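Side project, low priority. Logging it here so it doesn't get lost.
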Amino acid sequence: MVDWRLFMTDTITEECRMRIAAVKELDRTHPAMVHTVTIPFFPQATCGSDDYALAEQCDIFGNSVGSEPLSAAITLSAAPDKMVINSEIHAVGGSTYARPKLNNLEDMKRHLFLPLSLGIKGFVFWQYRPERLGLESPAWGLTDLEGNMTPWLEAAIRINNALQANSSVILNAARPNAKVAVLNSQRAQLFDFCVDQKSMMYIKSVKGAHAMLRAGGYAVDIVGDRQVTEEYLKQYQVIYDPFPYYKDARTCQILKDWVAAGGTLIAESCFGGYSDDDGLHTMAQPGFDFSQVFQAKEAQVTTASSFQNAYDKEWATENSDGNLLNIDFSGKIYKGYYFYQSMAPQGAEVLAAFRDGSPAAVCGQYGQGQAIWIGSLLAYAYEAAGCKENAQLCAQLISSHSSVRPEIDTLEADTLCSALTAPEGQLLVADNLSEGDTVTIQAYGTRLAGQKIVNILTGQEISVQETQGVQTA
C-alpha cells in the first residue's frame, strides 16, 4: 500500500512537471504557480499530493485554506527559497445547506494576518462573488449573490489598504528564522492510513506538534522526507518527531548524526517500531538502534484502549480516563494520548513517570546532543483532546535542553507575537486568543525596530519601553 501510494504521488508530481514544462515552452516570461491543499484537509494517501515535491517544480508556490497556520507553515517550509502566497482563502466557505459564517473584522484579520506573520507574501480570496453552481453554492463570495457590499468585504478592503501601504516591508521581510522544526514524514502518513484510515493519528500529531511549539512562541518549520538530509538539518537546534512509528535506516542515521553534532531531539512513543526498509515490525524499541541515542529501551507497552475480542461488537474497550494518560513531570501532570510505553533507562535521565511510577520520559546524552523520548503522544493530546498545558511542557523541555529561546514573547496566556523584519521596517502580528483585550510584547534576541509601534489599521501608537536590554510594549 505504501509503495502504491508513493507511485501515485510520483505520477502526480511528474504530471505537474509536464504541465509546467508545457507552459514554459509557450511563455518564458511569466512565473508558473502551483497550489495545493495541505494536510489535514487533503491527505497524501487519498490525493497523492506531496507539497515538498510539487514545490520544487514551480516558480511561485501557493496553498488553499492557507489561513490555517499549519497549512501556511507546510507551504512555506516546502518552498523555502520561493515566494509563497495563499491562493485560495476559505474565509466565506459553505454549501447549499451549510451557509457561511457571518465574518466580522476580527475574523478577516485572522484569515490574513496569521499566515502573513509566518511569511506568506500574497492573498487571493476564493472568491469575489459567491458560487451559483453545485454543492458550494451559494457560498464562498466576498460580495452577496447580486454583487453587493458585505461586512466581510468591507473588512477585506480595510485590511488590504493597510497592507498595501506597508507592502515594501511585507515583500522584503525575511521569513522568521526558525531554529525548531517538526518532522512531517510522507511515508509515516501513508503507514498511518494503512493502520486506520479514519483516525489520522499521525497527521493530527504533526498538527498538534506545530501548534504546541507555536504556542510556546517559537518559529517552527515543518520538514518533509525530501528535506531530511545532513546539510538541511544543520539549520535547526531542536527537532520534534511526532508519533515516529514508521522509520527507515537512512533517516534514522541522519537523525543520529544530527544529535551527535549537538542537536536536541524530542521524540514521542513507538520510535522506529515499523521499518520502511523491509516492511516489517522491528524486533525491539526504539528501532534502528536508537537505544544508544535515548540511552533507554522499551520496558512495557500497551494502549489505553485495549484489544478484547475480535468477535465482539467493539474490538477494544477504553479505560476509565478514555484515551488520555497522566504523565508526571516533576510533580506537574500533563497528558499523553493512547500509547503507554514505559522505558528501561540504560544511562538516561528519567524526566517523568506514568501513574504506576514507571518511567514515561527519558533524556539521553549522545555525542554533543540530547535525545528526549516520551512514551505517549503529547501532540495528539494537544490537538485532539484540548490538553493545552502540553505547550508549557514543550517550552520547558526546549529551554532546559537547548539554547533556543523565542525572540519575541508575550506575557499573557493564549497570546503570541511574530515579527517580520525588513530594511524598510518591521511588522509585528499579535495573536490574541485570550479573554483579555491587551497583549504585552517582550523582545529579547531581536530588538524592536523603533521607539513606537503603530497599529496599521487604526493609527494608534504604542511606546516601546526598554529596561536592562528587554523591550516591552
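Brief comment: The two ends are 53 Å apart (CA to CA).
Revisit when time allows.
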